[in-house]
Amino acid sequence: MPRPALTEEQRQHTRQTIREAAAKLYADNGINNISIRAVAKLAGVSVGTVYAHFGSLSELLQSLWRRPVRRLVQ
Question: How confident is the model at residue 69 (pLDDT cuts 50, 70, 90)?
Answer without folding.
Answer: confident
